[in-house]
Amino acid sequence: MFTKVCGLRTEADVATAAEAGADAVGFVFAASPRRVDEPTARRLVAATPPSVLTVGVFKDMPTGEVAALARASGVGAVQLHGDYPRSAFDDLLGQGFRLVRATALTPATEVTTGAYGEDMLLLDSPVAGSGERWDLTALTGRPPTGHWLLAGGLTPDNVRAAVTEVAPWGLDVSSGVESSRGVKDHGRIRAFLAAARTT
Ligand SMILES: O=C(O)c1ccccc1N[C@@H]1O[C@H](COP(=O)(O)O)[C@@H](O)[C@H]1O
Questions:
Q1: Domains along the chain?
Q2: What are 83-94's pLDDT values in tens digits?
Q3: Which of 136, 142, 152, 197 has the CA that lies 20 to 30 A from 64?
Q4: Phi, psi (5° rounding) for residue 176?
Q5: Dihedral angle at the C-alpha atoms of 144, 145, 146, 150, nearest 10 degrees?
Q6: Which run of H or E residues covers position 83?
Q7: What is the 8-class DSSP label of residue 176?
Q8: How far is the CA of 4 from the centre of ligand 1 (A)?
Q9: pLDDT tens-digit map of 19-32
Q10: Helix (H) or strand (E) holding 99
Q11: Is the ipTM of this structure higher than 0.90?
């Protein structure tokens, strides 16, 4: 099970997630209580072991700004939330970025990973980073294919049941491993990753 812990803001957050076995860590450039500026992101990327994928998280930001921030911070992949057309993916792919296509599930959502050239598809709640769960039964009859991550209100306590229900390729968590909004709880990060390992 691939695991990503998102919204990290300190070196201690990164070290905890990496030591507890996260495959990826996320740094939020979008408007959020978890937002980090470019110098902070660069510092956190440098503090991340090379075996752990670093992901920059963006929402409705022009691709020129996305590319500039991703390049300057050195993240290994770009996660796009919002209303990006196919051409935005082509633009960033053409510049050599690995992409995560993040979306809520609607009847129109393309659930084939790679349909826009992305490495991973992230299915999230309608308000990304809110900690709200969404109705996983909406996936019945239309299972996503490939490297897709489940996100949205996951916690150490509910992650096993969610995995049993929809069998994702990977998991992404932020709010569920916090003590208060934007502040990571290291015990909860360890508990989440331990629970994910046993699924
Ligand atoms: O974390 C945020 O505030 C955020 C802001 C804008 C876009 C994405 C954001 N976070 C993403 O939300 C999921 C985790 O959600 P949850 O908090 O566990 O419910 C994850 O993909 C983050 O990258």
A1: 2-198 (3.20.20.70)
A2: 999 999 999 999
A3: 152
A4: -70, -5
A5: 10
A6: none
A7: G
A8: 11
A9: 999 999 999 999 99
A10: strand 98-104
A11: yes
Nearest atom within ligand 1 for CA of residue 153: 19
Angle between helices 186-197 and 11-19 (to 10 degrees): 20
Provide the residue count of the chain: 199
Strand partners for 104: 124
176 C-alpha to ligand 1 centroid (Å): 10
Q: Under a CB-based contact definition with an 8 Å cutoff, are residues 59 and 86 in contact? A: no
pLDDT digits (tens, 9 = 90+) for 34-44: 999 999 999 99
Pocket residue to mutate for ligand 1, from 78, 80, 124, 157, most atoms within 8 A of Cβ: 124
DSSP helix/strand/coil, 128: coil
Q: Taking Cα atoms as reference points, which of 56, 61, 60 lies closest to residue 34? A: 56
**Ligand 1 atom 7 nearest Cα:** 128
H-helix or E-strand spanning residue 126: none
